[in-house]
Amino acid sequence: MKRFSLCMIIMICMISILLAACGRVADTEESGISDDDKYIVVGLSQVGAESDWRVADSESMKQTFTEEKGYRLLFDDARQKQENQIGAVRKYIQQRVDYIVLMPVGEDGWDSVLQEARHAGIPVIVVDRMVNVKDSSLVTAHVGADFYSEGKKAVEWIEGRYPSGRNLHIVHIQGTLGSTAQIGRTAALDDALSKHPEWQLLARMDGDFTQAKTYEAMSDYLENAPVRPIIDVVYCENDNEAFGAIEALEAQGYLCGQGGVSVISFDATHDALVAVKNGKLSLCVECNPMLGPLVENVIQEIEAGKVPEKNHYVEEAVFTQNDVTDELLESREY
Ligand code: GYE
Questions:
Q1: Å from CA of 53 to ligand 1 middle
Q2: Mean pLDDT confidence for 312-324
Q3: Position in ligand 1 atom list of the atom nearest CA 267
Q4: Would the N or C end of the chain have less CB density within 10 A of its end CB?
């Protein structure tokens, strides 16, 4: 009996040691930052996966920050909720990552959590959209696009496409309200509307950068209009909204493209360029999602003891039917 209890005690001890060891492995895997000195640890908070652009952007980050290149990437998808992003950033602060990469859903509400990152001495690189903080030094650098100038390119195309003085009937589908992409692209259209009194804004709706929400909003508008609206231009703030708008317009018997409604979008992802080539989408203004390498440059500058430039903008093109060749479609990375 005595021998039996001694054996039991030894076994229990061994099991406990084993469990503790397993627990350490689990902790390590969860935080992902235990063999820290070997890697530059990047804690990234992504908006979500609402659009083709966003998926390409996440892919670019994952391809850039690999262990082979000396990084450990902690990736969090916030499912388009700011509170999830704030939670992720706080977790990264606790884990004492080396850098925080933040792609904010909206501009406001970041002051406190970025102060916390500052107190912890962690540089914050804001990517894609911007944050609106009282103390701009809370942001180490920003990498992204100039959304107002993208909007201006779209507006200039409309000005060139339709003779001046002609009445134009425009439907505007906005992106996620309060995001920099929405604010800039909307401001460019608003400025054009006040410059052209002959342009008439028929309707403005929130498409939240998604195909499904835009399809619903557009169908609702078309089905409930007291008389069938004459529409010249649908200004969509991203490609996925344009897919939803075209679907809804066609379901109601509208023709999209030459001789029909000019649908405009931003991003210029692969499927949108196919729609430009097929003539359904009249204009695509590029917004480059391959931002990983640019963020890496900023990190490498800081690692080398340099102070990076505050703002890094990306070069972007404009596509109409003549610009989209098979070679371009084949070589398109996103
Ligand atoms: O245009 C849209 C995405 O902020 C630039 O967000 C980004 C926008 C992009 O979901 O497709």
A1: 6
A2: 94
A3: 1
A4: N
DSSP per-residue string spanning 109-149: S-HHHHHHHHHTT--EEEESS----SSGGG-SEEEE--HHH
Looking at the CA of residue 50, tell me the nearest atom of ligand 1.
10
pLDDT over 50 (residue 1): no
Q: How many other CB atoms sit within 10 Å of the CB of residue 199?
A: 21
Nearest CA to ligand 1 atom 10: 51
- For 106, list phi and psi in degrees, rounded to 5: -125, 175
Which residue in the block uniquely carries the two structure tokens 């959209």? 129
Q: How far is the centre of ligand 1, averaged over its atoms, from the C-alpha of 288 (Å)? A: 10
Asked if 324 and 268 touch (Cβ cutoff 8 Å), the reply is no
Which protein residue has the closest C-alpha to ligand 1 atom 8? 181
| 333 Cβ contact list (under 8 Å, min separation 6) | 56, 290
Rounded to an integer, the average pLDDT of 20-32 is: 41
d(CA 288, CA 127): 12
Q: Break the chain down into helix, strand, coil percent, rounded to 5.
A: 45, 20, 35
Average pLDDT of the residues of the chain: 92
In this prediction, residues 265-279 reach a mean pLDDT of 98
Q: Which residues line ligand 1 (CB under 6 A)?
A: 50-51, 53-54, 128-129, 179, 181, 209, 238, 266-267, 287
The answer to whether the beta carbons of residues 334 and 290 sit under 8 Å apart is yes
| Ordered domains of the chain (ranges, CATH) | 40-143+290-303 (3.40.50.2300), 147-287+320-331 (3.40.50.2300)
Spacing, Cα 168 to ligand 1 middle (Å): 27
Under 8 Å between Cβ of 296 and 271: no
What pLDDT is attached to residue 248? 98
pLDDT given for residue 23 in this prediction: 38
> pLDDT tens digits for 131-183?
999 999 999 999 999 999 999 999 999 999 998 888 999 999 999 999 999 99
**pTM here?**
0.88
Average pLDDT value for residue range 302-329 = 95
For strand 318-319 and strand 283-286, is the pairing parallel, antiparallel, or unpaired? Answer: antiparallel
